[in-house]
Amino acid sequence: MTAHRKTPASEPGALSATLAELRRVAALPLERGETLPPAAYTSPEMYTRETERIFGREWLCVARAEEIPEPGSYLRLDVLGVPLVITRDEEGELHALSRVCRHRFMDVLPPETTPEQGSLKRLTCPYHTWTYRLNGQHVGRLAGAPLMRDVEFDNASCRLPAHPVEVWNGFVLLNLDPDAEPPAPELEGLDRVLRGHGLEDWVSVETKNWRDIPANWKVAVENGSENYHHMGTHAATLEPVLPGRDTRVDECDGRWFTMFTPYSAEAVAAAAPDGEPSRGRPDRDGETGPANGRDGQDPPGMLIAGIFPQFVLAVVPDSAVWIRWMPTGPTTHDTRITVMVPPDAPRTPDFDNYLVRLREQITLIQEEDLVAIRGVQRGLASDPPPSGGRFSHLERPLWQFQRYLAERLL
């Protein structure tokens, strides 16, 4: 193990030392892979660099397209302190606009008085009733500003700033960089893996939020990017059904990763008491890709697909869970977990009871994860700092994550 020298996170030169250590560990092969230095999870300067170079430039998964279902629909959200609203115009196109009024900086959809989702013909600031259009090419443009005729003011040039937005497999991707390249080329390989599931048509049936969790965002992302911890953190919940040791981690690189864990023999037998074979993952019509089994179809189990920096999707035959992490400070983050099911599932008998059980399961598993996530952050803040840990082969996505971070931050 490599001992990390104690350097206060705010000490001059501390960021340079942290980045130098990131460069070193990111260059190691997986067989000798080490954890990041503790300062990478505690340093305010590191956090500032991440928000500027990663979250300010990357495509982030923020919602499902079904949350903005029809023309006039809107969804309010905040991304790293940036107040935004996603709208759908009369042509069905999505737009991501700033919620900051161009008059005197008021939030045009204040959470104190407006719902998170709804329908509007126009955006009207509640402060001085400046109004903005939401239709097509004119979206965000000022439509009216009362009592501004007696001053020098060009209302034709007044417009809410817009941000790039795309829909990918039913997920809404947002980029705070106005010059961002489209996300599709980077995700083409992952598209092939997910194609047979038809996720763009799946429907959301439950969403839960956890706010200001006391841990750096990377601790949560790393926890959600490996199943090695099933045998410890989820020993009584996930491990008996999805044994972490049986996980096949695919050899991916770049922004996305995949892995697959088959159900245990006991779980398969319990799910098919009449001897009928359990339903496996959808046929991908012969598509080859990292998540395919040797014969083109895996046995029943769970596919995990992640996109750095803040998205993980877990798909099983009858449901899927997607997790969105969003940093709120150097050592805090928010977590949003949404459960999706195939479009016909809500109409099946006993679905309401199924959803109750699923909701309880998701909450229990997240609370188990939070024990680990908070515990790791406490360990990272200890003095003297912990020495560098080593990776299991099941933690390949964490090693890949380091390479991603190095590419963006160095």
TrEMBL record:
Keyword Cytoplasm: no
Domain Rieske, residue spans: 59-174
Co-factor(s): Fe cation
A GO term, aspect molecular function: 2 iron, 2 sulfur cluster binding
Compositionally skewed regions (Basic and acidic residues) per UniProt: 276-287
Spans annotated as Disordered: 269-300
Keyword set includes Repeat: no
Top-level taxon of origin: Bacteria
UniProt keyword annotations, A-Z: 2Fe-2S, Dioxygenase, Iron, Iron-sulfur, Metal-binding, Oxidoreductase
Protein name stated in the entry: Phenylpropionate dioxygenase-like ring-hydroxylating dioxygenase large terminal subunit
Organism name: Streptomyces netropsis
Classification of source organism: Bacteria, Bacillati, Actinomycetota, Actinomycetes, Kitasatosporales
